[in-house]
Design goal:
Low-confidence stretches: none
Largest sheet: 5 strands, antiparallel
Number of strands: 14
Shape: elongated
Length: 412
């Protein structure tokens, strides 16, 4: 059908997660055409032609909205095929009535805005109002229109007080919050990858997201759903919430949480990502790290020192800035960090100097820690964000300067 044609042949259409997101193209295009039309109307000298086109535009847009407001049933059926299957006639009748009322209300609202805008433009064409005032008044109308619609979706209900929040801590949540002082993660066995309440209170191994990282989704499908204790250990699972809703320390269930970071003694090199994923079955993450051979150039010789320690600094903890304090690093060592590998923005620093790191255990981060290191940091600072921010600032400044220049020329 039409959707399949667009998906296969229209550039970038298949990049939208939901096809309805393509509507943004129409929203942008219509607004751009309106700006171009307004610019032509305000700057063209032939008033007679302006009058004719303004009348035509008003008759078409105003006529359609007025017709929708007066006879909405001509344009849309207010009940879907599923609604007709409902045997409660009184309910479906009221549902249709409510939907009709909403459409009529918005149609009248649109007609009023069209009438006001057309009136302002008509006064300009007749020479009763200056161009600068037209722009200001239309800007106010535009802001009023957008503001009132946006308030339907972002309003006071989105900024509720803490005592009105959706999630209330259960007894299990309270116990974990009281005892989990080292920020270890929590695994909720109650539908773990389609619920979000655990993430509200804790660092959750599960949680819902409509577009998870594919690598993590593969870890879920191949290991977490199989209750692989080695994988749960490397993910620093310190607590589990049982199907009965009870909080249990994970070491009582065969899981050995390894902390936020640790040192290992040996490397198991594999040929590719598939072997890396398979190797997570039955390995000991406290001593062994699994590395794809593509990262072999980032590995150098190392020796684990049992006296060495590496701990996440909880006082300075931020989701986008992780600091690890190290002691007794008397030799080069290989560290594993219980954080998801994502090199598109996460940068590593040793004692303030940017250093490379690599993927290990299919989803985690690793790096060689040189002798004498005292601090390791991970900072999330994607270049795409900073570049986009700079472009946005520069564009805004240029736009303001351009508007100022145009206004100055008009006033002169």
């Amino acid at each position: 059908g039409l959707t399949e044609f667009f998906f296969n042949y229209v550039p970038a259409y298949n990049k939208f997660r939901a096809v309805t997101m393509a509507m943004i193209i129409a929203e942008f295009g219509i607004a751009l055409l309106a700006i171009l039309a307004l610019n032509k109307l305000l700057n063209k000298d032939e008033n007679k032609e302006k009058e004719q086109k303004l009348k035509l535009a008003f008759y078409i847009t105003g006529g359609i909205t007025l017709l929708v407001a007066l006879v909405p049933s001509l344009f849309v059926d207010f009940l879907s095929s599923n609604d007709y299957l409902n045997n409660n006639f009184d309910f479906t009748s009221k549902l249709a009535s409510d939907r009709e009322s909403i459409l009529k209300s918005d149609a009248w609202r649109s007609f009023i805005f069209i009438l006001l805008a057309a009136g302002i433009l008509w006064m300009f064409v007749k020479g009763k109002i200056k161009k600068q005032y037209v722009v200001i008044i239309l800007g106010v109308l535009l802001l009023s229109d957008l503001w009132s619609v946006d308030k339907r979706y972002l309003n006071e209900t989105h900024f509720v007080k803490d005592n009105n929040t959706t999630f209330r801590p259960t007894s299990a949540d309270k116990e974990i919050l009281d005892k989990n002082t080292n920020q270890s993660r929590v695994f909720n066995y109650n539908n773990p990858f389609n619920e979000s309440r655990t993430s509200y209170f804790h660092n959750s191994i599960g949680g819902y997201h409509a577009a998870k990282l594919l690598r993590y989704q593969e870890l879920i499908d191949n290991h977490l759903t199989q209750n692989n204790t080695s994988v749960l250990s490397m993910l620093n699972c310190g607590w589990v919430i049982t199907p009965q809703g009870e909080a249990v320390e994970s070491n009582l269930t065969g899981i050995n949480p390894l902390g936020n970071a640790w040192f290992v003694t040996e490397v198991k090199m594999v040929e590719n990502a598939n072997e890396e994923l398979d190797a997570l079955n039955g390995f000991n993450p406290s001593t062994t790290v699994i590395v794809d051979k593509r990262f072999s150039d980032k590995l150098t010789s190392f020796t684990k020192d049992e006296s060495s320690t590496i701990k996440l600094d909880m006082k300075s903890y931020k989701p986008n800035h992780l600091t690890y304090n190290l002691t007794n690093i008397n030799s080069d060592q290989l560290a594993v960090f219980s954080e998801i590998y994502y090199d598109k923005g996460w940068n590593a620093y040793i004692d303030g100097e940017k250093v490379p790191y690599f993927r290990s255990n299919y989803v985690l981060r690793s790096m060689i820690i040189p002798k004498g290191t005292t601090k390791v940091e991970f900072k999330f600072n994607p270049s795409s964000y900073s570049t986009g921010e700079n472009v946005a600032y520069a564009s805004s400044i240029l736009l303001l300067l351009l508007l100022g220049f145009v206004s100055y020329k008009e006033l002169k």
